[in-house]
Amino acid sequence: MGIIRIKRIYAAPQSADGTRVLVDRIWPRGVSKEAAKLDFWCKEIAPSTALRKWFGHDPSRFDEFRAGYRAELDANKDTVTRVRELTDNSDVTLLYAARDPHINHAIVLAEYLDQR
């Protein structure tokens, strides 16, 4: 099984990234597709628009956001399986655009994938 990492999409790609997967529903501003060096864009694994807007990256809502997002992932088994299968063969870097490196959906997703 490969290692799962998370990284802002604005950080420079590195060979240690392994398979680079964008896990945002919306394409990040100011990043060209060439510069992103993506292997896969998985919009379907991102939190729902309603959950993302409710959360608003408010640290006081993160625990509740985590629970809501995990419930969405539980209901999205096919997409989770597709991303999980990538980790069977290589290291994977989950790319996100949020500003806060400690409070974002990629952290929740990485935890979720690690537990499966």
Task: Give a verbal description of the structure.
The chain is α/β, with parallel strands linked by helices. The chain has one domain (4-114). The chain has 5 helices and 4 strands. It has helices spanning 33-36, 49-55, 62-74, 77-89, 105-114, and strands at residues 4-8, 19-22, 40-41, 92-96. It has a 4-stranded parallel sheet, covered by helices on one side. Helix 2 (49-55) packs antiparallel against helix 3.
Q: How do the helices and strands line up, and which of them pair or pack?
A:
Elements: E1 4-8, E2 19-22, H1 33-36, E3 40-41, H2 49-55, H3 62-74, H4 77-89, E4 92-96, H5 105-114
Parallel strand pairs: 1-4, 2-3, 2-4
Helix pairs in contact: 2-3, 3-5
Task: Name its key features.
single chain, 116 residues, alpha/beta, 4-stranded parallel sheet, 5 helices, 4 strands
Order of helices and strands: EEHEHHHEH
Radius of gyration: 13 Å
**Approximately how much helix is present in the residues?**
40-55%
- The tally of domains stands at 1
Mean pLDDT: 96
- Beta content comes to 5-15%
Q: Count up the helices.
A: 5
Strand order of the largest sheet: 1-4-2-3
Largest sheet: 4 strands, parallel
Backbone shape? globular
What's the end-to-end separation, in Å? 11 Å
* Total beta-strand segments: 4
Unreliable runs, pLDDT <50, ≥5 residues?
A: none
Structural class: alpha/beta
